[in-house]
Amino acid sequence: MEADIFAGCDKIRNITSRSSLIGCDFNIDKNAFSGTVQMFASVKVPEGSIARYQDIGWGDFSNIEEDSSLPVQCIIDVSTNYIDTGNLATFQFFGNVKVNDYTVQWIDWENSNFWDYSCDPILVDKGNTPVLTFIPYTTNTEIVKVTVNGIDVTDKIQNNTYTMDPVTGDCSVYVEFDNGVRTIEANYDTNCGGVFLDGNWVDGHCNDIWMGCGNVYETTKNATVRMTIEPHEGFKIKTVLVGGSDVTTQYLADSYYDISNIPLSGTSVSVQFEEVKWYTVSTNNYDYHHSCHVTVNGHSLDYWDSLRYQEGENVKITVDWGDDVKVTSISLNGTSVASGNNITSPFSYSFNISEDVVINLQVVENPHILAVSYTGDGSVTINGSEVASGTNYEIAMNGMAYVTIQADEGCEIESVLYNGSEQLSDTHDTYYEFRADYGEGSNQTLTVKFRRAQCFIATNIQGNGTVAINGVNLTNGDNTAYDPDQDLTVTFTPGTGWELASANIDGADITSYAQGGTYTIKKINANKTIDVTFVPVSLTFSTYRYMTICSPQGLDFRGVSDVKAWTVTGFDGNKIYLTPVEIVPAGKGVLLEAAVGTTWTPTFTDEKFYMANLLVGTLNPIWLDVYSYNADNYCRNYIFSNGTKGLGFYPLSSAGDFAAGKAYLPIPTYVVEGARGGQFTLDFDGNTNGIDSVNDAGETESIYSISGVRVDTPKKGLYIKNGKKIVVK
Questions:
Q1: Which among 62, 162, 338, 369 is least surrounded, fewest beta carbons within 10 Å?
Q2: Is 54:27 a contact under the CB 8 Å cutoff?
Q3: Distinct helix (H) and strand (E) counts, the chain
Q4: For the chain, what is the largest distance between any 2 Cα atoms, rounded to a whole number of angstroms?
């Protein structure tokens, strides 16, 4: 409908439009009804389309309304990807789309400038299930992505078609095609150098205006293209841009750059070259001595001469000298690159030249060397500064070196040789000092040996067994001192029914050597740590049906019928509740039950799980107090024994050693106080037997300090009596 098509038709009284899209400006001109008396005309339009009509000027119709009898139509707006080269002749679409049987027509919304392409909107009746058909332009083109109303439906496409859900309103469809072709455009001055992509020379341009033909390199979608650049003589690389990103630093570091993830629209390579400048290297004052000389990149540099190098070229300066002189400072243009008395000949320094360079040296008479070496645990200090073994300390002419020798804690000085002569009269000294000076002669030597005054052995024993050195049992967890340079015989003795599982000295496994019971440490000269684990090999219930055990390895009772394992899981009144378990994790204490005379050979397991258990196992021997804190409770400690009332858990009467491989039971004092007479019955999974845990009659009136020490005559203070706190005033 063109402009003024109904101009002057002032008798129009009724207008009915069946289209929901009539309000769009490419279907009807805003002035189509110019001259019509619009206030008298009644306009009926489909539901939901009044706003579209009013937006383009139909608002002048004062009697415009929606008619439910008219069909409701919805807009499907389709768009797709394309490459916009800025040139109409090379504008590229990769495929087309059909909605039902209608092929989308691409139109320009911005004055036919080909900058913003979409399609002419397509109308379908509400409730329709449109079928989208995708038509790639070439056999290499694939559908990459399809969204409907912003939802990705790509994986639902079959045979290049997709059936939409029934439309309830306007819809948007976006389709992305990929033809698999990628391009790289080169932009550089060919007069200055060349750009190569995968070894192929790619033309650039000869000036800043014209970009010559053949400057586009074509590759495939997932390709990685290696770019190399070769400047012409007299030029160097200034900047390298790939896709607008500056990669100059990376290119110069690697001498190549790999281009990957090339976008569908392609990417560009821009290289700028610049002319290389020339700089000179010279020296002004190094002919102090005929034995000192300088070379630059292998060419001798005399004090009256200079050498030329291109800007950015790597320049290596080497300075060497004879034994009769010493170079103490080397500087370039006044900036020091080496200084001090420890510069060694030959000395080399490399840099990329960017200016004229003048080399300046400082040369002095060669000092005398004090060569220091030492072994063992100690330190050597010269003139207040600690020096490492292997240091060549320089003593300047008329200078002195004050030497201090200090052994580390637990060590002593074995010998001090100065120029081959022993300086010590007492070989057990821990401190010694003397003075070396320039006048002692030319180069000098200092050789020091430290040795340990005592060596300490730390022990970590798990399980039921003992470790002894030279017949003396070691205390678990302590460090035991020994004189160095002696042989130590280590004896491993498992408890009854236990065996040696592993033995390590400083992390080295000696189990196979220790299985015979002993191992010899030859000439001990350092601190050591012994880690030993004993595990039960078999236990015999020779006298009693019950015993406690704690193993460094997990125990498996599945399938074992003659031995049961019990854990303590709670207290109630005068009862201690025990629960049977089949898997006992490593380090957990349990109560074992079997008929007298039963011999049990354990089966080990690495299985781990949570096990409710109030028993406390002891992998190592411990010092057990009468009272302790356990799980934030103040507890009385009970041990399993054959007491006055038979087998059971009895309160510990006094603090003392408690063996490894066993278990004890800390019972909170509030539970003990709540039990009649402190006596408990053991409830084995709902069954009570004759084993009791009792307060021994002899303990009835016993009084203990808060730390668990028995007190015969309490003085003023706080005490424990029959499991209860009392105050003596």
A1: 62
A2: no
A3: 4, 73
A4: 137
Q: Report percent pLDDT > 70 for the chain.
A: 85
**Residue 648 identity:** G
| Residue-level pLDDT at 1 | 61
Burial class for 205, CB neighbours closer than 10 Å (0-12, 13-18, 19+): middle
Strand, helix or coil for residue 275 = strand
User: What is the Cα gyration radius of the chain?
Assistant: 48
Encoding tokens for residue 360?
């300046």
- Asked if residue 234 lies in contact with residue 275, where contact means CB atoms within 8 angstroms, the answer is yes
- Cβ atoms 626, 702 nearer than 8 A: no
The partner residues of 489 in beta bridges, in order of sequence, read 520
Residue 419 Cα distances to 151, 413, 436, 441, 442, angstroms: 88, 17, 10, 10, 11
100 token code pair: 């039902």
Per the CB < 8 A criterion, the answer to whether 370 and 441 are in contact is no
Contacts of 361 (CB under 8 A, 6+ apart): 283, 285, 286, 288, 292, 294, 319, 327, 329, 330
pLDDT digits (tens, 9 = 90+) for 228-249: 999 998 888 999 999 999 999 9
Reply yes or no on whether the pLDDT at 36 is more than 80. Answer: no
Cα distance between residue 133 and residue 474, in whole Å? 87
Instruction: Specify the 3-state DSSP secondary structure of 164.
Output: coil
303: buried, middle or exposed (CB in 10 Å: 19+, 13-18, 0-12)? middle
Amino acid at 358: V
Task: Tell me the one-letter amino acid at 51.
Answer: A
Whether residue 346 is preceded by a cis peptide bond, meaning omega within 30 degrees of 0, is yes
The Cα 432–Cα 405 span in angstroms is: 5
- In degrees, rounded to 5, the angle at the alpha carbon of residue 549 between the alpha carbons of residues 611 and 603 is 75
pLDDT value of position 665: 95
| Torsion angle defined by CA atoms of residues 351, 353, 355 and 357, in that order, rounded to the nearest 10 degrees | 60
Min mean pLDDT across 207-216, 288-297, 667-676 is at 207-216
pLDDT per position as a tens digit, 392-418 = 998 876 678 999 999 998 788 989 999
d(CA 640, CA 647): 7
3-state SS string for 368-426: EEEEEEEECCEEEEECCEEECCCCEEEECCCCEEEEEEEECCCEEEEEEEECCEECCCC
CA 58/CA 122 separation, integer angstroms: 22
Question: Which of 168, 164, 175 minimizes the C-alpha distance to 119?
Answer: 175
More confident residue, 718 or 458: 458
Q: Where are the beta strands (DSSP E) in 188-254?
A: 193-197, 200-202, 216-220, 225-231, 235-242, 245-246
- Judged against a pLDDT cut of 50, whether residue 699 lies above it is answered with no
Query: Do β-strands 171-178 and 73-80 pair in parallel, antiparallel, or remain unpaired?
Result: parallel
Distance CA 240, CA 229 (A): 9
